[in-house]
Design a protein that fits this description.
The protein has about 270 residues and is α/β, with parallel strands linked by helices. It is about 40% helix and about 15% strand. The structure holds S-adenosylmethionine. S-adenosylmethionine binds next to helix 3 and helix 7.
């Protein structure tokens, strides 16, 4: 007589029927050949110092100047706003929020709009040019008059791998499309874990290792991440993936928009 064996997770633990396999446990797929060909490899060919200088120069220059327009055209601005407005990532109750790699203030502006009145918002970026652009857009008279409700963000030029902030000083972090500018995610995630208070939450968005991600990497000379490997690394650093998010149901069906996840620090 045949007996049905229980299904097993990656580490051999028997899964109860109906139990969902966590993103960490799902089997990893090998990167498709075409994606490997398209993906930019500059980040792996030079030292981190050299790469970081290149990133700074790119964002200080003309490419950085058109970043907010690109985000507008790709609907990143609109859909990010919707995600926070609809509380898919809920900012209520957050007292000290850190926006990592704020760029031209694409996410920082949503934070000013949807955080609790009086919440502290700190925005930082490696590129001085981007910090200047973000500050200008947030302090724009019209935007300020309509949206700032006692929230005056602070701006800092800093490197994600060496943060000038004390341990556990934030209860919320947003990190949009910055991690892909590090050769090794651990360099940035370890710092984010250090400055995030226990129980604090993080909204992490990054480029995924699929065809769309490979093209993004070519355009911005960055890398891509494998969802399962990134989840496993986060877990190792005490950053648990609570909820995978998608901009819309269409993004979920098409697996588009990259990795977008709500994380909680243990
Ligand atoms: C694609 S933009 C993202 C902007 C914004 N967060 C968003 O979601 O649209 C990436 C930003 O990360 C910044 N960046 C790259 N490497 C960084 C690092 N090591 N530390 C801090 N910022 C970094 C770049 O200067 C750039 O402004």
């Amino acid at each position: 007589m045949l007996t049905k064996l229980p299904r097993r997770g990656r580490k051999g633990r028997a899964r109860k029927s109906g139990e969902k396999r966590s993103v960490v446990d799902r089997p990893r797929k090998r990167k498709k050949v075409l994606n490997r060909i398209v993906e930019n490899s500059f980040i792996n060919r030079v030292s981190f110092e050299e790469y970081r200088e290149k990133v700074r120069a790119v964002y200080d220059g003309p490419q950085g100047a058109v970043l907010s327009t690109c985000s507008f055209l790709s609907l990143h601005t609109l859909l990010g706003d919707r995600m926070l407005r609809k509380r898919k990532f809920d900012l209520r109750g957050c007292k000290q929020i850190l926006d990592v790699g704020c760029g031209a203030g694409q996410i920082s502006r949503h934070l000013v709009k949807y955080a609790d009145p009086g919440a502290g918002v700190t925005c930082f970026d490696l590129s001085f040019g981007m910090v200047r652009r973000a500050r200008r857009r947030i302090n724009h008279q019209q935007f300020k008059a309509r949206h700032a409700k006692g929230t005056t963000p602070g701006f800092v030029v800093a490197d994600l791998t060496r943060l000038p902030f004390a341990d556990e000083s934030f209860d919320c972090i947003t990190c949009g499309y910055v991690l892909e500018h590090l050769p090794d995610a651990r360099l940035g995630l370890a710092e984010l874990s250090r400055v995030l208070a226990p129980g604090g939450r993080m909204l992490l968005l990054t480029t995924e290792d699929n065809f769309g991600g490979a093209w993004t990497s070519r355009l911005w000379r960055c890398r891509t991440y494998n969802r399962h490997e990134l989840a496993a690394l986060c877990k190792e650093l005490g950053l648990l993936w609570k909820k995978e998010l998608w901009y819309t149901s269409m993004h979920k069906i098409l697996r588009a928009g990259g990795i977008c996840v709500e994380i909680q620090k243990e």
